[in-house]
Write a structure and sequence with these properties.
CATH class: Alpha Beta
Order of helices and strands: EHEHEHEHEHHEHHHE
Strand order of the largest sheet: 3-2-1-4-5-6-7
Number of domains: 1
Distance between the termini: 22 Å
CATH architecture: 3-Layer(aba) Sandwich
Helix content: 40-55%
């Protein structure tokens, strides 16, 4: 992936951190964003110590001006932007939808759906003039199936699938691919954090979801980290551009789709 410039939102932590490292190892020039400056600095320092070059720019993915500035800085530094990976995520509130806090529920929509749209708009301002590029939206099993008591997260990811489909249709006459990527349930990032939090919580709804995730893990329902990361690298490399508009699952045989 040499000569390929990649921007990963939320790339300093969790699964995004693993994606950043793998893409850098594959030869891509990687830029990461996030709100947590300390996490960004730690990622750059730690990965840099192993010989990987990753640049970080602090930005809130729901701030269009900030994301435009990120893309402008990338272009000024690297000459262009080839791949956007929308990975930043908000778990949202847990509990019965009938009583869940509306503001917290809506904030998850803003981050998980509005964030990818804002980042895509910023990236497309660079990709559209050259007519090529790649946008990968991280979706989830929660957006493909019902996830009661986690409706904020589930609904936002379902909506992101539709955003992916519609944006791909609008760009069908270009060489800009838009893909949804479902890494599956992975023992990393949001899923691991949720299980760890549930294990030390007395919240019955959080405990319910934590028990469900742990049961899925123990019964072999998780995707291995290596598979989840490896498939993402293939998508970023362009191996599935012909599938623009579709959701690719981590364990799919891309070559046969």
């Amino acid at each position: 992936m040499r000569d390929t410039t990649v921007l990963i939102t939320g790339g300093a932590k969790g699964l995004g951190r693993l994606f950043s490292e793998a893409l850098a190892r594959s030869g891509a020039r990687v830029f990461i964003t996030g709100r947590d400056q300390a996490a960004l600095d730690e990622a750059v320092e730690t990965l840099g110590a192993s010989g990987l070059v990753i640049d970080a720019v602090q930005a809130d993915v729901v701030d269009l001006a900030a994301m435009r500035d990120v893309v402008a800085r990338i272009v000024a530094t690297g000459g262009g932007l080839d791949v956007l990976i929308n990975n930043a995520v908000e778990s949202g509130p847990i509990g019965p939808t009938s009583i869940v806090d509306f503001d917290a529920w809506w904030h998850a929509q803003l981050v998980n759906l509005g964030g990818p749209l804002i980042a895509a708009q910023a990236a497309l301002a660079v990709m559209n003039p050259v007519g090529r590029g790649r946008i990968i939206n991280l979706v989830s099993p929660a957006g493909l199936h019902r996830w009661p008591y986690a409706t904020a997260y589930s609904v936002s990811k379902a909506a992101l699938v539709k955003l992916t489909e519609n944006l791909a249709a609008e760009l069908r006459d270009t060489d800009i691919a838009v893909l949804g990527y479902n890494p599956g349930l992975v023992d990393a990032g949001l899923t691991r954090a949720g299980m760890e939090l549930a294990a030390h919580s007395d919240d019955p709804w959080l405990m319910r979801i934590g028990r469900w995730a742990a049961k899925a893990r123990d019964e072999g329902g998780f995707t291995s980290v290596d598979v989840a990361v490896g498939t993402l690298v293939r998508l970023a490399r362009g191996d599935a551009d012909s599938l623009s508009g579709r959701v690719v699952n981590a364990e799919d045989d891309i070559d046969s789709l």
